[in-house]
């Protein structure tokens, strides 16, 4: 009996599933089984044009809709998402591999931005100055941009798009989302939920694809802005090409996040945090802790505590209640695993080798267990590269100053953390360190939605971060209006209230 064709993940254009004009597709895997579960369509120029045209056509009516009616749609979407986020978590686990609890956590953090956006009417208020000159007032108003593009990565197929689209939509823009082709089904599910919430057709569009879709959005004259999250080389490419085409761009790049551990730190808390932040979501997150910078003499004791905790972790199918799931593809698993050999060749000590893990899952899954490497040379690719997997490196330093110098010398500046019980040292650290997001006894310092997310240096291209006040500024443009009205006593017609 012939095998049935795999499920095809389509675009979502003009409020409905939309087949691709290109005929090109790519595999979508279930990483815990190592099997191709679906195929996703890949856009060509005609698909890009259709997606943008639909979003452009929807913009006038949506942008002119009252804030109260826009807000009502946002509230309905929020309630639907809260009621059915378990469905979305299962989709994420099936295509990304992260465990269900991690997928639910991702959705909850994205929902924070939806909740922030329900109150966007407050953040869209302008300013007013009376009598700046004789009988002259000046005030400002905020307006949407038009069609905006979002290009999101595989590691957070719900949360990262949700950093952007709730604010963009609430501000009156229309959105074209290009999700990762590795796990596209979450975006399609979100699009259908928006329709159920009452969002007009064309306001939220999903364009599936690869580089051809990305370039199409970067070059299309009707796309006014691009939000991107991904690796640093691609972030730089998106920023340079988007701005060259006259677009507003925020491009969040890669990271190599450090955890500085001072001698007075609570080592049990620190070990818990290193394991959680290093191996959660199989290390496939830009805010993962990938380097523990241990100020001697704490390294040996801390490593022993981390090893104890690693031994308790279950790596396996995310639908089985495990602690850590597989990596997203076989190619990515093999690339991450190759760094273990690099570490050995560079003279580091492999304390725990994740290639030896016995997973609670199918033997064909893309498994790599938690990996701990000590005495990593700072010249090694294990230290310098964004590995994006469950590989935690330990670098030993003699002092606080040496640790800060090491962190500040990194090309990246996304997030970092310090673990200490010394308030003065923590306060000094937050001033000395050259990164965009800092945790004090908090390993993954992702700010809540009312603040903005983004790093410094090669971790952010453009001058505007995601969500919070900076997200509102990114998705709006300002008009300044200078107004003078003649006093009725000036003469001429008088339409004032009659005095008798």
From TrEMBL:
CDD domains assigned: ALDH_F6_MMSDH
One Pfam assignment: Aldedh
EC number: 1.2.1.27
NAD recorded as keyword: yes
Chain spans, region Disordered: 1-24
Gene Ontology annotations of biological process type: L-valine catabolic process; thymine catabolic process
Family matches, as InterPro entries: Ald_DH/histidinol_DH (IPR016161), Ald_DH_C (IPR016163), Ald_DH_CS_CYS (IPR016160), Ald_DH_N (IPR016162), Aldehyde_DH_dom (IPR015590), MeMal-semiAld_DH (IPR010061)
Any GO MF annotation of the entry: methylmalonate-semialdehyde dehydrogenase (acylating, NAD) activity
Keyword Protein biosynthesis: no
Domain Aldehyde dehydrogenase: 21-481
Keywords noted in UniProt: NAD, Oxidoreductase
Protein name listed in UniProt: methylmalonate-semialdehyde dehydrogenase (CoA acylating)
